């Protein structure tokens, strides 16, 4: 697999926030993270691709993405695009999640019918942007008294704010329909359930009665990657959980469908940016 097709996904820091303004920004490559992401569109027309779902967004749209979702954001080439995005590892707020597990509703405790995107009204945008600007200011000055604690408390308030908006289902984005949606959902479900097997393009054509070119086109147009690349990503995402659970590299490589350990290590490093052993060390640290 060409590692340029998927962005590196390992977070060097437990928490980070970015504010970007660009013209003609276009995220061609899908990616997934080693933690959680909150993405906010301040201006511009956006399309969020999150796994098999596609959302139309724009000013005031918030997208929430967990560590198992492949995603990308596509922007109108002719418009200026301003966005904020927050990355944080699952353990960053552990002291809050341990006491208030329902706080994690946006990422791991999702209710049935949960959608990844919501649109804030004008008043809500003002409140939300205030949270973001405060967090960004804290991130820029290491000399601020109790900076990490202030950042965590502010992030918790931001997440509570979003939880309430998503739970009320007000202005939640409904995924848009697109050509090949049902076929894509069927094939990705099949891959997720059978990732340890020898899944080939030939097998997919026989199973779903579609031509190779049709399957590849559906994947490329909507996920931005081929079915084979999608399979590799699912395997690597699964391997992370197994590694964290204490399984050896050899055990993990066999469990996710690799015949030899070296092939797994090479694929893992090309996507995660670190070797499986270093990944475990960094997470333990």
Write the SSE topology.
Elements: E1 15-23, E2 36-43, E3 46-50, E4 53-57, E5 61-65, E6 71-75, E7 80-88, H1 94-99, E8 117-119, H2 122-140, H3 147-168, H4 181-193, H5 201-208, H6 212-222, H7 227-244, H8 249-255, H9 261-272, H10 276-284
Antiparallel strand pairs: 1-7, 2-5, 2-7, 3-4, 3-6, 5-8
Keywords: DNA-binding, Transcription, Transcription regulation
Pfam families: AraC_binding, HTH_18
Domain HTH araC/xylS-type: 185-282
Structure description:
With 285 residues, this protein is of the alpha+beta class. The chain has helices at 94-99, 122-140, 147-168, 181-193, 201-208, 212-222, 227-244, 249-255, 261-272, 276-284; strands at 15-23, 36-43, 46-50, 53-57, 61-65, 71-75, 80-88, 117-119. The protein folds into two domains: 3-168, Regulatory protein AraC (Jelly Rolls, Sandwich); 181-284, Arc Repressor Mutant, subunit A (Orthogonal Bundle), CATH 1.10.10. Helix 2 runs antiparallel to helix 3 and helix 8 crosses helix 9 (261-272). The longest helix is centred in the middle third of the chain and has 22 residues, at 147-168. The protein is globular. 33% of the residues are buried.
Give the low-confidence spans.
Answer: 1-8
Amino- and carboxy-terminal Cα gap: 29 Å
Shape: globular
SSE arrangement, N to C: EEEEEEEHEHHHHHHHHH
Strand content: 15-25%
Helix-residue proportion: 40-55%
